[in-house]
Amino acid sequence: MRNPRLAVGLVAFGAVVTLAFTYSRAQDAASSYTPQTRIAVCDLKEVLANFPKAKDLYADLQKRRTEIEMEDKKRRDALENIEGELAQLKRGGTEWERRFAEMQRLGIDREVWLKHQNGMMMHEHHKITRALYEEVVQAAGKVARDRGYHLVLSYDRNMPETANSQELGAMLETRSVIWSDSQVDITEDVLKQIKSSN
User: Fold this and answer.
1) Following CA atoms 44, 48, 51, 55 in sequence, which dihedral angle do they give, to the nearest 10 degrees?
2) Distant-in-sequence, close-in-space partners of 185: CB < 8 Å, separation ≥ 6
3) pLDDT digits (tens, 9 = 90+) for 74-124
4) Domains in the chain: boundaries
5) For domain 34-197, which architecture applies?
């Protein structure tokens, strides 16, 4: 070749083009690489059913529900007593009117009281369930991280018994996990984690 500079320039240009092409291919490969997502499953119902704190909290809630039912029975009995008295009195008389007005007042009081109590019970149940769920999420997250999982799905280990096909269809529609290997089930580990941190 007569011009050595031209030859060196062409070689250098070829090297630059080759490097640019190789770099571009490496970038494409790196951007299309997705790390493998490891998924675990956990039976949320099972965890909540065996959550020691949950049993105590829901037992307290049930005790409160029983107290409300007993108080409501007293209020209903009082109303029935007045109804029985009214049957013995002359309709439209002074005593009948007084007792009737009292029955109306007690009936309204009972309705308002019961609605308020039920609302408070629902609020308390919601608050407890939310707090327990947050603890389960924390425990499941710790177990998943320790075992190298990136995602935990909720599933039912056992298919619940149901009386009719409509209920069965509804349950099947809400199932997010159809099958999983028992090796990715972290339910027991989540329960152990919860028990050790409480």
Assistant:
1) -170
2) 40, 41, 42, 43, 157
3) 999 999 999 999 999 999 999 999 999 999 999 999 999 999 999 999 999
4) 34-197
5) 2-Layer Sandwich (3.30)
